[in-house]
Amino acid sequence: MEKITQTAGRNQLGTFAPDFAHYNDDVLFGENWNNQDIDLKTRCIITVVALMSSGITDSSLTYHLENAKAHGVTRAEIAAIVTHVGFYVGWPKAWAVFRLAKDVWNETEPELTEKEDAKCRKDHRN
Description:
Layout: H1 8-13, H2 18-32, H3 40-54, H4 59-70, H5 75-89, H6 91-104, H7 114-125
Helix pairs in contact: 3-4, 3-5, 4-6, 5-6
């Protein structure tokens, strides 16, 4: 397993909040993320779900979506995960995560015309 190393805490808060930087870089990412009881792909998914559940849709979620992609989470998997979790934590949270995930997975889709939308709805019912 690759060793996770983080320096964001020290880089951004090192002199302002050195204890927090230490906990972030050395404990959260150093010890916790390197614990081998959970594989990295699963850990990435859990983290995305936790942030989504908390309503966190800032750059930290983008970072963790990118991390999930880098550790093998596919576009289809993230779409299924966000849809599933959306039923439990709220549809608006799912929409917010999808906006970020589409950017991370570089997915841009044109909006459907009314005719295409009606066909999708009909096909989905069958």
